[in-house]
Design brief:
The structure is a single chain. This protein is an alpha/beta fold. It has 14 helices and 12 strands. Helix 1 packs parallel to helix 3. The radius of gyration is 21 Å and the shape is globular. The structure holds glutamic acid. The site of glutamic acid has 12 residues, from strand 3 and helix 12.
Length: about 425
């Protein structure tokens, strides 16, 4: 239990307690939702390229299974622990529920530094980890996907390992796979696209007339770069972006098409033409209309929240704003699109991928995008209307809907035995 109750997990529990006050739900159901259904800690020993054997710690946590299999990514990141994985699994439950997907939440991770590992080491790590968590996963049980520093290739290794064990190809065991293995068109872009859709909806609601909204994006990975790409396509002015090394800033706007090509070649945003180098901290505090933290959690805290100067904050990353920062930002009338809505595009298209794999029937990309937009817009409307009616912030409204649906499913099923 001690391993589980880390500060991040306690924060997730606290959020659940706060939202429970708004819901007319039996306290026994909330008590059940406060803990993950199943957690597995595994050691993942692999042979490194230098011949030595090294052991990494891996985790897979299933938070809830009331409405279907559990769903959630696997991250490779230094310092991943059980508490963080469990908190993220809980947030996945609320996210899937808010989007009306027939899934509970899960999350996995390995405490490692993928930037310092070779392709071969990462493959051995993935295959051994998959073998260790194998009894827990499956298309009807728990379906992993990419998260921080994992990608299509990681999912292909996972699918191959799982399929080899069973003796036949089982594409539905993971989502975010390459198209050639049963992946879905539009999955890679889905999270960033979803962030952009929620920003457009927020602007429509706020009704401030911007001739060209200014945007700051933290992170230029799968979520940040694609969020920037779609907002740039909409004609927005992207004035700053960053990666793990630094931020770059140009008040007249960055050319995102050229920046994407530059990053593909140089692996960093540093050195891009006509831009000034700034720190990640400075980037978050720039004056802009839209701020999209799309990198890691806990970047806006009680320490810097009063210096944040945006009108809309779209949480592309999972949990970038801490609860104490939330209070400050709400007082400043910053409209926060909570991560369980803003970045739900990824898991939504994962759901489409799983459906296509099961049906062995694949959709065109425009169909995927259209369906994604319908679900995101609908969830946004539900959240916005509830926030207006109850005079609460969008995060609380999103949580009320997300937690409320899961609690109702649990009530209907009852407590076994
Ligand atoms: N890792 C992504 C998330 O946090 C996607 C999960 C999925 O597609 O299952 O939402």
């Amino acid at each position: 239990m001690k391993e589980l109750l880390t500060p991040t997990f306690l924060m997730a529990q606290q959020q659940l307690d706060n939202v429970a006050k708004h819901l007319n739900v039996d306290s026994g159901i909330i008590e059940r939702l406060k803990f993950p259904r199943k957690s597995l800690i595994v050691s993942v020993p692999i042979r490194m390229d230098n011949g030595e054997t090294k052991t990494f710690m891996g985790y897979r946590v299933q938070h809830d299974l009331a409405m279907g299999p559990s769903k959630g990514g696997i991250r490779y990141y230094p310092g991943v622990d059980l508490g963080e994985t469990a908190a993220l699994a809980m947030w996945m439950t609320w996210k899937c529920s808010l989007m009306n997907l027939p899934f509970g939440g899960a999350k996995g991770g390995i405490d490692c530094n993928p930037a310092q590992m070779s392709e071969g080491e990462l493959e051995r790590l993935t295959r051994r980890y998959t073998t260790e968590i194998l009894p827990m996963i499956g298309p009807e049980k728990d379906i992993p996907a990419p998260d921080m520093y994992t990608n299509e290739q990681t999912m292909a290794w996972l699918m191959d390992t799982y399929s080899n064990y069973h003796g036949y190809a089982i594409p539905g065991v993971v989502t975010g796979k390459p198209i050639g293995l049963g992946g879905s068109l539009g999955r890679t872009e889905a999270t960033g696209r979803g962030v952009a859709f929620t920003v457009l909806k927020a602007l429509e609601k706020i009704k401030t007339k911007y001739s060209q909204p200014t945007v700051v994006v933290q992170g230029f990975g799968n979520v940040g770069a694609i969020t920037a790409r779609y907002l740039y396509k909409e004609g927005f002015k992207i004035i700053a972006v960053s990666d793990i090394y630094c931020g770059i800033y140009n008040p007249n706007g960055l050319n995102i098409d050229e920046l994407e090509k530059y990053v593909a070649e140089n692996k960093t945003v540093r050195g891009f033409k006509d831009s000034e180098v700034i720190t990640n901290e400075e980037l978050l505090e720039l004056k802009c209309d839209i701020l999209a933290p799309c990198a890691i959690g806990n970047v806006i805290t009680g320490k810097n929240a009063d210096r944040i100067k945006c009108r809309i904050l779209a949480e592309g990353a999972n949990g970038p704003v801490t609860p104490d920062a939330d209070e400050i930002l709400n007082k400043k009338d910053i409209f926060i699109i909570p991560s369980i809505l803003a970045n739900a595009g990824g898991v939504t298209v994962s759901y489409f991928e799983w459906v296509q794999d099961i049906q062995r029937l694949f959709w065109e990309e425009d169909e995927v995008v259209k369906k994604l937009k319908t679900l995101i817009d609908k969830a946004f409307e539900d959240v916005y209307q509830l926030a207006l009616t109850k005079k609460i912030d969008a995060r609380t409204a999103a949580m009320i809907i997300g937690v409320g649906r899961v609690a109702e499913a649990k009530r209907l099923r009852g407590l076994y035995p």
